[in-house]
């Protein structure tokens, strides 16, 4: 398990188990689903912001619980589940989510292009080039405090104009 997912597991494992055990009659099934949720969460690491991993973890667990109940119904009924009722995890975002992301990226690009030159340069060096504040200060010939100020204003402007994904949605 990666360090990020392991830290998330340590922090939220008790809460996740409490939720799963409240909805599943068998504690072992709850433990198994929790472990599977962590395994599936690894697919998202590096693809989404670390602060979005918790909601994704709980969404994965919810989906696993739904699938578990479907399979339990199948075993009890001795029938086959129609393929239309099966949900398959996809690593690809839905078309709507892809379109929304493209629109959000265009809005972000407009916001960045509308920034004063120095703020835009500081923002791009930080977020695109991955330079530290000290490296940006040296490259731009400004103080680290000025870099921090430009970044704070740029990020606030981006959040205001583009918004942030809802922390409760995966």
Structure description:
By secondary structure, the chain is mainly α. 69% of the residues lie in helices and 0% in strands. It has 7 helices and no strands. Helix 1 packs antiparallel against helix 2 and helix 5 packs antiparallel against helix 6 (133-140). The two termini are 20 Å apart. The relative contact order is 0.08.
Which terms summarize this structure?
170 residues, 69% helix, 0% strand, elongated
Which helices and strands appear, and what pairs or packs with what?
Elements: H1 3-23, H2 27-41, H3 53-77, H4 95-113, H5 117-127, H6 133-140, H7 144-162
Q: What is the percentage of strand-forming residues?
A: under 5%
- Envelope shape: elongated
Distance between the termini: 20 Å
Helix content: 55-70%
Report the sheet with the most strands, covering strand number, pairing sense and barrel closure: none
What would you call the structural class?
Answer: mainly alpha
Q: State the total count of DSSP E strands.
A: 0
Spatial extent as radius of gyration: 22 Å
Count every helix, treating DSSP H or I runs of 4 or more residues as helices: 7
Order of helices and strands: HHHHHHH
Overall mean pLDDT stands at: 82
Pick out the low-confidence regions.
165-170
